Amino acid sequence: MMQLIQQLAACKSYDFSGWFLAEASLCLEGKAHSFSLEICRKTERRAVLQVLGWDEGGRCRQSLTVLLVKPLSLSREIISAEADGAPDGEVLWRHVFSDEEILDYLAISGDANEIHRGKGAVVPGLCFLERLLSSLDEDDLRWRCKFRKPVYAGEELCLVETAAGMEGYVGGRLVNTIEQLPYKERVHDEINNI
Q1: What is the pTM of this model?
Q2: Pick from 150, 130, 128, 132: which is nearest to 93 by CA?
Q3: In 70-113, which ranges are E strands?
Q4: CA angle, corner 184, sides to 179 and 187, nearest 5?
Q5: CA 67, CA 117: separation in Å to the nearest integer?
């Protein structure tokens, strides 16, 4: 997955610093040896980018499709005060992202977004997915993750199982959802669903 993230971070066509990850679809079907990046849609406040990973035979084996949004403003106090309720379901995973862990991820991934830097930075959504994926040791999956609210360094993210997949909570705030996607003939079919 890190190779997909690195390809995405290498996009220099536009400056996405200050933008937030709103949604990501990730499909993995084994190893990829070459990659391509496409900016599928771009407006003043929304952009859809897709990275595809190809095997040696030219078959698409991996895809990462992201929806980035540029917020009008962001108030941490307002977001942190909102509560959606306590998590309901079996706890699958807990993690507290430290400032140092985020900086290590930024160095490896090449992500230069300013919102992920400084004390109490916003945890990169793809850092969360990469960390979760590595703890699950999965090589074949199809996920759609919606990022509802930011998670900040030092906050505990608690992932619980739901009928549709997983939900992530910080305290009483629902911050993300992960849905298992059905099998598609091609891994990059998910572009039309974002």
Answers
A1: 0.88
A2: 132
A3: 91-96
A4: 85
A5: 21
* pLDDT at position 61 over 80: yes
Q: DSSP H helical segments within the chain, as ranges? A: 2-9, 76-81, 99-109, 125-136
- CB distance 133 to 24 below 8 Å: no
Average pLDDT over residues 169-192: 77
At 170, is the secondary structure helix, strand, or coil?
A: strand
- Which residue's entry shows tokens 């490896």? 108
pLDDT score at 77: 47
Is 113 strand, coil or helix? coil
How many residues are listed for the chain in this entry?
A: 194
Strand, coil or helix: 84: coil
Distance (Å, whole) CA 65 – CA 4: 10
**Average model confidence (pLDDT) across the chain:** 88
3-state class (DSSP) for residue 132: helix
Work out the burial of residue 114: count CB atoms within 10 Å of its CB; fewer than 13 is exposed, 13-18 middle, 19 or more buried: exposed
Spatial distance between the Cα atoms of 159 and 178, rounded to a whole number of angstroms: 10
CA distance 20 to 149: 10
